[in-house]
Design a protein that fits this description.
Layout: H1 11-20, H2 25-43, E1 46-49, H3 51-66, E2 78-82, H4 109-116, E3 120-125, H5 161-168, E4 174-179, H6 185-191, E5 194-197, E6 217-222, H7 225-235, E7 265-267, H8 279-294, E8 298-300, H9 312-331, H10 343-347, H11 354-374, E9 380-384, H12 407-411, E10 415-423, E11 429-436, H13 441-453
Parallel strand pairs: 2-3, 2-4, 7-8, 7-9
Antiparallel strand pairs: 1-3, 4-6, 5-6, 5-10, 9-11, 10-11
Helix pairs in contact: 2-3, 5-6, 7-13, 9-11
């Protein structure tokens, strides 16, 4: 019988071990809490750890499973939440020192669904303040450390920085992030894990601190594509408290996950978009495309109606305008300890007129129609997730964003998966982004699963683990 490492077991492996009773939720939670206590002072992934409640939940799950009362395959599996997700009675800071004592008035729908599935909440993970930033930095609350470089403090990716670090470093088998311009996929890329960017409305945002009501999408961050599918299956579906979800029925990606990709048409990055991408990132991307072609996919060129960079300003205008609606009163108060790098990003929305905002939304819809027409005969678009591997924190230019390839996914209403596709000569992860039409999460996961199954990348562990 295979013995699994509780710290680096996948969600699927833990579920199977619990069902066979070869491993207990109590043992897993004890291991993870011990690792958090030992490693998190360096990694800084968690802002709060619910050790006592997690142990109680693990004991209850163990009894339920042993007595034949498991509520589903995720019963007893631990998970961490980004510190945007409200839990009634607990502090949710949104990464802001201003909200250091903000007590949640409600419990987010997605948290309720995780608990209803029997999952164990380990705690809250760090985020960029107000989720407004892709590098993963946080001036006042602290920046999580990317676990792949023991010598240099490198970018973990943001804004779901703590969630990416926690999963990569073996502190949690899965975590929840949110993605408005890449905030699930960027940390997934730089931390060497899987991140699922969902379509708006697939997963309820009720009880999740908002940045952009037009673009916000919660999603799972995991060590495998199957794990992302398992958690997504629990999270998605209509919620009366979030009208956007009522347009979608429940989605189960598992029946088609292993169907294979023979015959699918996958579009590749136009040559013009390769400029500015790190050489090793491009090499890993090209190798991933070749792997998918060997598995039977048809690789095709595509003439995109716009460059990726063309969407950046419009995306920033929408996010800035809607973010200013929610926290403008905070960023405009010079006496409050708002991150100096985040403040101007939110204040971008202060000078946007109603006319310009509505024109931006109309232009967004036009761009979506143009992209859909250009890609009507392909099943997915393949890109690198990030242009570079993680960079040293002290090299970050806070006036820029690493979301060159990811922002388009939000702006164009797409869904997508970031999946590890290699390592640089220095041992830093690279990542493949698979973008599909909105609502096609099952297809994106299917392509990612086929790629992952043919590569060894997810088996590596970071040095700081």
């Amino acid at each position: 019988m295979t013995v699994i490492d509780p710290a680096f077991a996948t969600v699927s492996e833990l579920s199977s071990a619990f069902a066979r009773r070869t491993l207990s939720p109590v043992d897993v939670v004890d291991v993870l809490l011990g690792r958090i206590e030992k490693l998190d002072p360096t990694l800084h992934a968690f802002i709060d750890v619910y050790a006592g409640d997690a142990r109680l939940a693990a004991e209850a799950a163990d009894r339920a499973i042993r007595s034949g009362h498991a509520v589903g395959p995720l019963h007893g599996v631990p998970i961490a939440l980004k510190d945007l997700v409200d839990l009634e009675g607990r502090v949710t800071t949104g990464g802001s020192k201003v909200w250091a004592k903000r007590v949640s008035p409600t419990t987010a729908t997605l948290a309720r669904r995780l608990v209803s599935a029997g999952m164990i909440l380990l705690g809250k993970t760090h985020t960029v303040e107000f989720a407004m930033g892709g590098w993963g930095t946080n001036t006042h609350m602290g920046t999580p450390r990317n676990p792949w470089d023991p010598a240099l403090h490198r970018t973990p990716g943001g804004s779901s920085s703590g969630s990416g670090v926690a999963v990569a470093a073996g502190l949690a088998p899965a975590a929840i992030g949110t993605d408005t311009g890449g905030s699930v996929r960027l940390p997934a890329s730089w931390c060497g894990i899987v991140g699922l960017k969902t379509t708006v409305g697939r997963i309820s945002t009720h009880g999740v601190l908002p940045l952009s009501s037009t673009l916000d999408t919660p999603g799972p961050m995991t060590r495998s594509v199957e794990d992302a599918a398992l958690v997504y299956r629990v999270l998605n579906g209509p919620d009366p408290d979030d009208p956007a979800t009522l347009a979608w029925s429940h989605d189960d990606p598992l029946p088609t996950l292993a169907r294979g990709i023979a015959g699918l048409r996958l579009a590749v990055l136009p040559d013009a978009e390769r400029a500015g991408v790190d050489r090793e990132v491009l090499a890993a991307y090209d190798a991933a495309v070749d792997t998918l072609q060997r598995q039977g996919a048809t690789i095709v060129p595509v003439a995109l109606p716009h460059r990726f960079g063309d969407y950046a300003a419009a995306t920033g205008l929408i996010i800035g305008s809607e973010g200013y609606r929610f926290v403008g009163h905070l960023v405009d108060d010079p006496g409050l300890p708002v991150d100096p790098h985040v403040r101007p990003r939110i204040q971008l929305g202060r000078g946007v007129s109603a006319r310009d905002y509505l024109l931006a939304l109309a232009e967004c819809q036009a761009h979506r129609r143009a992209y859909a027409a250009a890609t009507a005969d392909v099943d997915a678009l393949l890109t690198p997730t990030t242009q570079t591997p993680a960079i040293p924190i002290d090299h970050v230019d806070q006036t820029t964003t690493p979301a060159h390839f990811t922002r388009a996914g939000n702006y164009l209403g797409l869904c997508g998966v970031a999946v590890p596709n290699g390592y640089t000569t220095g041992g830093l992860p690279t990542s493949l982004q698979i973008l599909c039409a909105g609502g096609r999460e099952a297809l994106a996961l299917r392509i990612a699963w086929a790629y992952e199954r043919s590569t060894p990348w997810r088996q590596r562990k970071p040095p700081l683990s």
